[in-house]
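User: Structure please.
Assistant: Input sequence and predicted structure:
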Amino acid sequence: MTKPNINTKEGWNQFARETNTKSFIQEFGREPKNYEEVRNWVNAAVAEVEARFPAYKKPEPTLEMIGGELFEVLRF
């Protein structure tokens, strides 16, 4: 199997799929029934983290003039 090129959308998706599946197997000690089972597990883990740390919110970009130029700025 060739190593995916994570600099492309397809390569990144392949890398994520392989990594998520390996993590699932390590966590549960078995092969997933299908990749949907893996995605559901990943989504549940993300939801749990977001519930534990509600203060984390993806910042919304704002447009600001800096040095006479317009920039998209993220404030954390």
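The helical segments are 9-28, 35-52.
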